[in-house]
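User: Some background: our group keeps a shared notebook of sequences we're curious about, and every so often someone picks one and asks for a predicted structure to add to the entry. Today it's my turn. The entry only has the sequence so far, pasted here. Could you supply the structure so I can complete it?
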Amino acid sequence: MDTHQERRPYAPTAGAPAVDHRRALFATVQSFIWAHLGDPGLCPDAIAAAHHISTRSLHRLFQSQGCTVSSWIRRQRLNRARRDLADPKLAHHPIQAIAATWGFTRPADFTRAFRAAYGIPPHHFRTTALGRSRRP
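Assistant: Of course. Here's the predicted structure to add to the notebook entry:
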């Protein structure tokens, strides 16, 4: 008698292809958003239309990742603006110009969002970050 049991190859469940599709779609949508972060018109409706899905499906996709579409966009924009504010090569660019580069059209909105995200206004962050970068 053969004591080895035949091992069956992994058989994915019926939901696995759907999960893979959602992951791939999320990655595609992320790439699209990163490529269009500077567009002030970037919004859930435009993103959904560009990917031929409903806005509701887009919101569900981000909800499954634990965030909203708008909050994810805002976080990415703030991260990029923060990076640029700390870049000595961009020290001559006004803060609002950097904010506008990343889709923030109103200075007060940018300042409020930056302070809420990082606990410090953008001009204080920049002064501190650039002061540190100049030290030996």
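Suggested note for the entry: The two ends are 76 Å apart (CA to CA). The longest helix spans residues 16-35.
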